[in-house]
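Sample A.
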Amino acid sequence: MWFKSASVFHFLNPCKLKPETLEESLQSQAFRAVNSRQLASYGWVPPMGEGSEQLVHATSGFMLIKARREERILPSSVIAEHMAERIQILEQKLDRKIRGKEKLDIRDNVVMELTPQAFTKSSYDQVLIMPEQGLLVVDNASAKKVDQCTSLLRESVEKLPIKPVQTEVGQAALFTRWLKGTHKVPNELIIGDECVLQDDNEIAGYIRCNKQDLTSDEIKALSTSGKQVTRMALESNETLSFVLDEEFAFHKIKFTDSAPDDGSDMADLDPRAVFDSNVTLMALEFSTLFPAIIEVFGGIKED
């Protein structure tokens, strides 16, 4: 349940989503297991997992939803091997080379026949909706997977007015000033021990610093040599640590103030109460963190 990464969206209008109406909307895209002809399936599942039927977990004014992605594992090497065998047989039978569209047709047939035999694997995307803050957070930093998740949400909820957070001040610009020492780091933030420096004029040229003292003269010298800091580890109010990149995506989120409860010491308590408590704790931390970080970078950029 605990988010390890985050992509943040803001509502263009006041959020009017309610747990009851959202629950009804998600039902149309509820998860269904892949059938014998499908390579993948994606849909909403209960955030609490097995034993629960609710697609929306509402607590303390926040809403948590969860999507499941099920994919059949069909390696390209296996497809290629079966194709090669069939092409060889056909070429010997027809006494000519198999080319172009014929190869594509063979590949389609191979995929169709192997799909029912392929194993499946599942992954999950969580979404935290914070109506009062006007924010929506996806537990993923992969642009492709975040886009898939928000697309599913838009299919479920008509006219969903959300947009990725972009701030008035770019992350790389402020990171670089902090590292150079030309701009003071806000009191509520502490620079961590990780960053990435990228050349302005060379896309492939970068330096990754890990477990380093970013305030050292050696690291500062790198930031004055024309490189921009595109990724930086930070700690907020000694309760959360994370790595923020230039796309305003959060990575490696860790709750440093109180370790997430895995339930081992609360076996006798109601699982729903434990889950509810953990969701509330995380949501309250995020409801403070994300607005504060947005403000540090000058607020949400106006169109």
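Sample B.
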Amino acid sequence: MSVIVEFKTGSSWLPLAEAIAAEPAVRLEIERETATIPTMPNLFFWAAGEDLDAFAAALEDDSTVSDRQRLSEAGGRVLFRVQVSAETEVVPYPEWVKLGAEALSGRYYDGQWHNRMRFPDRASLQEYRAFCEESAIGFSLHRLYDANGETAAPRDGLTDEQREVFRLAYDRGFFEIPRQVTLDDLGQELGISNQSVSERLHRGYARLVENFVL
């Protein structure tokens, strides 16, 4: 039975490590990952932050990637394409492809990669977890779903809809000062009204206070 897992890994040995170290406040979101050479995949990713020109400059000096291209800009974010170089210490792509897994999302913020992946079964997940731990990037499990819809109880108590809004709001800079996006911007991206965004955020705030403050 296939499983979907949410987990965190470190960034020090992975592709983009040097650019991230130079601009640690940057937020990244992988759009897709493809490869003709499994150990040197192509990464398409969005970058967001206060100084994306500085990040782009750091990317030029990053030995873990090559063939860097700045493709487009939208909503204060920049879409980049890079190819992972042979100098990268750890390249997870060939490992999870070999195991028959699928990358559903990958985001970098707060010093870690936050990943969501689908594995054919728990045995393949355990094998990938062992790979991450042996490669020194770590593996911190957050949430695990079975294909039949059963899931481990969320530690934060949020609904999936609330968690989705919080993640997007954080990724787009809604919590920064000054804010980088509005409720309308978030609603348009999610396909819901700004009132629905506001309600999910406020109900989520209340749930987090109940679970972690009171």
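B remarks: The longest strand covers residues 65-74. Residues 160-212 form one domain.
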